[in-house]
Amino acid sequence: MTQTAPPPASAPPPGRGHGAGHPLVVRLTQLRGRVRAVLALFGAGVVAATGIGAIFVLILGDYLIHFSTPTRTVLLVLWLAGLGYVVWRFLIAPLSTRLTDKFLASRVERTHPDLSDDLMAAVNFIHAGTIKSNAFAARHVDAAARKTESIAFEDALDFRHAGKALAAAVV
Predict the structure, then answer these.
(1) CA distance 114 to 109
(2) Going by C-beta distance under 8 Å and a sequence separation of 6 or more, which residues neighbour residue 51?
């Protein structure tokens, strides 16, 4: 009977990369949660507005035209299929998209051009694990951390679309 050797002590814990506890990575992880919340609100608003609007049109059409039972059944199935597509397109697909630290860092840098790729480079150094063995990389990551202390990463989020979608669902 053979036993597998435990991973070396220098390897990161399973499911967590190099530097998972670094303050920059922690802030990006918090931003990822907020992005997912905004995506969920936007998707829920679009699904609700589309579903309610479409069923309202179907009810109004039935009231004015008096659809036969087979026509009602077909229209209901088409409504359900359309709603299923909207759920997939605006809720499931966006929420299942992988949001990497590099992508989130690029969004923060787009909002704050004064970072000039410092955050992206720092994230690359952290994930490569070079901050422990390379003094230049460690200094760069520390400088990027100091530079981003006063920056709100949440500024990279745009709540307007989610708000409009939820307002459309309410109206």
Answers:
(1) 8
(2) 83, 86
Is 18 within 8 Å of 127 (Cβ atoms)? Answer: yes
What are phi and psi for residue 6, nearest 5 degrees?
A: -65, 155
Q: What is the pLDDT, as a whole number, of residue 52?
A: 94
Token digits of residue 16:
């967590």
Contact yes or no for 91/107 (Cβ under 8 A)? no
The residue behind tokens 């909207």 is 86
Q: If you write DSSP's letter for every residue of 1-65 in order, what string do you get?
A: ---PPPPPTTSPPTT--TTTTSHHHHHHHHHHHHHHHHHHHHHHHHHHHHHHHHHHHHHHHHHHH
95: closest CA among 152, 47, 167, 146? 47
Model confidence, pTM: 0.76
Which percentage of the chain shows pLDDT scores above 70?
A: 88
For 43, residues 6+ apart whose C-beta sits below 8 A from its C-beta are 87, 90, 91, 94, 95, 165
Question: Which residue, 15, 28, 31, is CA-closest to 126?
Answer: 28
